[in-house]
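User: Can you help me understand a structure? I only have the sequence.
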Amino acid sequence: MDLRELRSFVEVVRLRSISGAAKTLRIAQPALTRQIRKLEREIGVALLLRSPRGVEPTAAGATLLRRAERLLRDAAELREGLAAADQAISGHVTIAVPPTTGALVVPRLLARMRREQPAISIHVMEGVNATLLDWILAGRAELALLHDPPSLVTLRSEALLDEKLHLISPPGQSPGARTQGQRPEIRIRDLDGLPLILPARPHLVRLLVEQAAAAARVRLDIVLEADGVALTRNLVAAGLGHGVLAPATVRTQVAAGELAAAPLRGRALHTVLCLTQRVEAAASAARQAVEAALREEVLALRAAGAWAEVMPGSVR
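Assistant: Let's start by predicting it. Here is the structure, written out as tokens:
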């Protein structure tokens, strides 16, 4: 039994005629008859019956018809998929990322796409979490890396990593008590009265810190508002206050002794980074390629420790 015989059988049943099928398939009628008989011998049952309306399948023939159609469809999809894999994918894809994560992921993503899919053009937009969500919902961006996206029927979100927030301080000024001579342990109550440099609302970090402080009845002293990661680092390094950032954004500065960093303890003081997109009937091949590469680059960075807590030895 092979695909050619199955295709011949399906065509005979469809046209209810061996002669008609032979003409459609462009083979001699005796040759087609031999194919059908060979198929019946291999299976061991009769597959076709002659009737006043033409050729009709037997009960076994009807079962074979359903299976054969499925096999032929799968074979066609396999051929198309293999042919598509041999061709370069082209298209334009817009992605939206937060500044910190974008600085880590986007250079790797673009370098990879240039190597593997140079015909795909990528437009990168950067913004705070609330803006990224608006862009996705409005269709301005096709893919986004979002922290704690809302659960909406119009969105599909895939959690990629859990990101713990750190208190960033000038060297030697972390407020928490050291645990067993290691890094300071920062609790939300340690922020009471501490001069803080936080992003303006509706930045997610600002909202998380304020919500945790309100739950613990802690008074926050926000002396400066700074939305940029680099700006916050510089202001903290200058001794103007303490910031709240992801550890990946200060790893180099902590290692150089320019900043101190310690994790903020508490279930509310972390975020889940998700790969988010609108729920649509179908996505272009270009978008699927970018989505897969974006996911793999984030997971590779996570495995390499890009979002891990700053090591105790690097906290000054």
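Now, to help you interpret it: The chain has three domains: 3-85, 91-162+272-303, 164-270+310-314. Residues 312-316 have pLDDT under 50 and may be disordered. Let me know which part you'd like to focus on.
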